[in-house]
Write a structure and sequence with these properties.
This protein has 257 residues and is an alpha/beta fold. Helices cover 36% and strands 23% of the residues. It folds into 2 domains: 37 residues; 183 residues, Vaccinia Virus protein VP39 (Rossmann fold), CATH 3.40.50. Strand 7, helix 7 and strand 8 form a beta-alpha-beta unit. The longest helix has 37 residues. The chain starts with 8 loop residues before the first helix and ends with a strand.
C-alpha cells in the first residue's frame, strides 16, 4: 500500500541510525576536503597574487607589493649617466659597504656593471660577480671590462628565478635599484641566501617610497618596511638602514652565522 514502509519499526530505527552515521561521515569528508583546499590556497597565496598590471608593473604581487617592469637594455645609457654621481653618490654607497680586499661580492642586477666596475679595485684578492638576466647588458659590461682592463669582474647570466650562484660562495650581495624589478623575488633571494657564506651580508639600495619628492615612478621605489618584510621572508636579519644617500635607502641584512 502506497506510503507504507516495507521495514519494521525496529528496522526503521536501525536504518535511521545508519543514515545519520553516513551523513556525519560524508559531512566530515566534505569539511576535511574544504579545509585541505583552504590550506593549499593560503600556501599558494603567500608567494604571489595576480592583478591587472599597473602602467609600470607586471601584474604580479608579492607580499602586498606589485613588482615593477624590468628596465630593458635599451635604457642602459641611463645607468651610466654622468649625473648619477651627484644624484646617487655611488662612491659613498660603495664606501658604506666596508669591503675587504679578499671579499667575493655579487652585484645582482648588475646591468652595465656601473657598481661592479667601481667595486673591483677594492677587492684585489677577491672578485666581483656581476649577475644580470639580460645577455645584452652583460655584453655591454664585458666591453667595458675589456676597455678598462678590469680582470676581477666575472659576468654571470642569471635567470628570472635564480642568480645562478654556487652555495656558500659569496661574502656580500649588492642590489642597486634592482630588487624591485625581480619577477620572482622570493626564489631569487632564496638563491642569494644559499650563495652567502655564513654571516654573509645583503645590501639593497632602493629609492625611498616614503618620500614623494623622489621623482621616481611609484613601483620603482620601496619603503624600509617593505624591504624588511621581504628580506625577513627569506630568513635574513636586518642590521641597519643608512639614509645618508640623497634619494635612496641603503639597507643592510645578514645571513645568520
Amino acid at each position: 500500500m502506497m506510503g507504507t514502509s516495507i521495514f519494521s519499526q525496529g528496522q526503521q530505527t536501525i536504518w535511521a541510525a545508519m543514515v545519520s552515521a553516513c551523513r556525519y561521515l560524508v559531512l566530515l569528508a566534505v569539511l576535511w576536503s574544504l579545509a585541505a583546499c583552504g590550506v593549499a590556497t593560503v600556501q599558494a597565496s603567500t608567494d604571489y597574487q595576480t592583478i591587472t598590471p599597473s602602467p609600470d608593473g607586471i601584474g604580479r604581487v608579492y607580499l602586498g607589493r606589485e613588482i615593477a617592469q624590468t628596465m630593458g637594455h635599451q635604457g642602459a645609457g641611463w645607468l651610466d649617466r654622468p649625473s648619477r654621481v651627484l644624484q646617487e653618490r655611488p662612491q659613498a654607497a660603495i664606501a658604506a659597504l666596508d669591503l675587504h680586499p679578499t671579499d667575493i661580492v655579487a652585484d645582482i642586477g648588475a646591468g652595465t656593471g656601473y657598481f661592479a666596475r667601481r667595486m673591483a679595485p677594492l677587492v684585489p684578492q677577491g672578485r666581483v660577480i656581476a649577475v644580470d638576466i639580460q645577455p645584452e647588458m652583460l655584453a655591454l659590461l664585458k666591453a667595458e671590462l675589456d676597455t678598462k682592463g678590469i680582470q676581477n669582474v666575472e659576468p654571470v647570466l642569471g635567470q628570472l628565478d635564480s642568480p645562478n650562484l654556487p652555495p656558500n660562495s659569496i661574502d656580500l650581495a649588492l642590489m642597486v635599484d634592482a630588487y624591485h624589478e625581480f619577477a620572482y623575488p622570493r626564489e631569487v633571494m632564496q638563491g642569494v641566501v644559499a650563495a652567502l657564506k655564513p654571516g654573509g651580508r645583503v645590501v639593497l639600495a632602493e629609492y625611498r617610497a616614503e618620500n614623494p619628492m623622489v621623482m621616481i615612478k611609484r613601483l620603482h621605489k620601496m619603503s624600509v618596511a617593505q624591504v624588511r618584510r621581504e628580506m625577513a621572508a627569506v630568513g635574513l636579519t636586518w642590521v641597519k638602514t643608512d639614509d645618508s644617500l640623497p634619494e635612496q635607502h641603503l639597507l643592510f641584512f645578514q645571513r645568520p652565522a
